Amino acid sequence: MCLSGLPTTIIYHPDEHGVVGESFTLFCNNSANEFVSWWRRSNPDAEIDFISLRDGILLNEFQERCRLEGDHLVFHKLELNDTATYICLEEAGQGVRHVTKLNVSGNQRPVSQWQLIHC
Prior knowledge:
CATH topology: Immunoglobulin-like
Structural class: mainly beta
Oligomer: single chain
Distance between the termini: 46 Å
Number of strands: 11
Radius of gyration: 15 Å
Helix content: under 10%
CATH class: Mainly Beta
Shape: globular
C-alpha cells in the first residue's frame, strides 16, 4: 500500500475477542513513539471511519464510548457493532499501520478447546 508514493508498512496482529457490555482495550504496538491516529472499517466494502486524529481527540460516537490511554483505544462497554477491523496509524498516517480485527460476541467469551477438554 502506498500513500503519496511512499511505501507503507502494514503489520497484521492476531484477532481479538470481546464481550458486549465489557470494557476492552485495543493495543497499538506503536514502534515509532510518534503520535498515532485510529481508523475503523466495519467490513471490507465499507468506508473507513476515523476514530481519532493525530491530536488524540476522539471523533463521533467514539467520544462517548471510548478513551485513549497513550496510543491504546479503550472501549468503556463494547457493543456488537464494534466488530470491525481497527487500524492504528503511526506518524499521523505516514508510518506503520497496525491492523487488528475485533470480534464482539453477545454475552459469553469464546471457549478454547483447552477449556473444553479440561472441564
